[in-house]
Amino acid sequence: MKRRNAIVLVSGGLDSATALAVARDEGFHCYALSLDYGQRHRAELQAAAQVAEALGAAEHRRMAVDFAGIGGSALTDTRIPVPEQPSQGIPVTYVPARNTVFLALALGWAEVAGAGAIYIGVNAVDYSGYPDCRPEFVTAFQSLARLATKAGVEGAPIRIETPLIHLSKAEIIKLGTALGVDYSITVSCYQADEQGLACGVCDSCRLRQAGFESAGIVDPTRYKDGS
Amino acid sequence: MKRRNAIVLVSGGLDSATALAVARDEGFHCYALSLDYGQRHRAELQAAAQVAEALGAAEHRRMAVDFAGIGGSALTDTRIPVPEQPSQGIPVTYVPARNTVFLALALGWAEVAGAGAIYIGVNAVDYSGYPDCRPEFVTAFQSLARLATKAGVEGAPIRIETPLIHLSKAEIIKLGTALGVDYSITVSCYQADEQGLACGVCDSCRLRQAGFESAGIVDPTRYKDGS
User: Fold this and answer.
1) What number is the average pLDDT over the span A92-120?
2) Inter-chain CB proximity A66 and B69 less than 8 Å
């Protein structure tokens, strides 16, 4: 049944790998979508392909979107340094409207594939303060999806599923581990090198390290300093 | 003042050219955004560049989005013929989630450019029955934009402006003509040739022809049959 297809946004990071594992565990045939948006490092996209394969996605598709042309974020503009200390407010690693664009593209694919759901690994607990990771953002996108699509008009709207939204990083890691996610192949670091080795000091690395520690699970992350 | 900047989605067609003229008339510095989404003909994008220049846009940016990879529409999949007779329901020229993606990308640029508004030339009167041209879709996107962005979080949400939404095609043509739009450089046809010559028989050509006739304005469209 086609409605058992799901589009899963897979970035190559820890959260989206867990979201993919949850979608599979809930019985969906998963179509993994990664966005090539001019992010600083390519290791993230390679990790996404590995994650999709390891977790049995039926297909992995990479779509290019020219975010670098827009700029305005440390993740797409190499002139803006990635902060290595915690900051107040919305950090410079925020990519303007990124999750809106990602969900919009997933919505297009979902409509063509006849998918019943889109899974996205946003979470609002141990997160970086991005506006488009909040539950109210997801709810607003769900309303939009109902109105924006043929599926919605025909009474079978595509659901936006956020299985991690209320979990802490430690809870996400425990959940994924129970579902067989191999976190050693995921890359969370904002400035990983070409081999996918993590810096250990950016916001994303700090959240991830603290998550493994709090979960009591050995951190399999490969760091640049060899640790 | 930066808030007097506006992003205007310019497709190369009649409606978006009119929306650009309205935004300029309302005093905005306009940044024209065209999406290269694998549409059948390139003449549309060339027309967009001409329209942006003719109407004094401060900048014209073309962003590539891989809609062809998704397929499912006669406008992006050459295996699906463009219908030459009116159809019931949502037509095959509907591109899944297109306006959601367009507005999302405009939102990203608007946030970086500090723009106060996004103009989009959708209209819900003489239109093709696409779900993402309806007023309720626009309202939902406006709610999303407030939640999705730094600007929204900081209390200065980016407005979505749809000056044509309640106008008939004839009213749009009269409005644009009064604002100095040269419709001879616009291309509305779903299957224009490389020179931008129109077929005269697709949905979009039929709506446009009827609009000029009803407005009592000579149709400057260049047709393939030389008329």
Assistant:
1) 89
2) no
Q: Does A206 touch chain B (CB under 8 A)?
A: no
**Is the minimum CB–CB distance between B138 and chain A shorter than 8 Å?**
no
Asked if the C-beta of B98 comes within 8 angstroms of chain A's C-beta atoms, the answer is: yes
Q: Mean pLDDT over all residues of chain A?
A: 88
Q: Which amino acid would we find at residue A219?
A: D
Q: How far is A197 from chain B (nearest CA, A)?
A: 29
- Would you tell me which CATH number, out of the four given (3.20.190.10, 3.40.50.620, 3.90.1200.10, 3.10.180.10), belongs to the domain A2-215? 3.40.50.620
CA distance B205 to B189: 5
**Domain extents for chain A?**
2-215
Pair of tokens at residue A182: 């191999």
- Report ipTM (2 d.p.): 0.84
| CA separation, residue A223 to residues A48, A183, A193, A205, B149 (Å) | 18, 13, 10, 10, 32
**Which pTM does this prediction carry?**
0.88
pLDDT digits (tens, 9 = 90+) for A19-32: 999 999 999 999 99
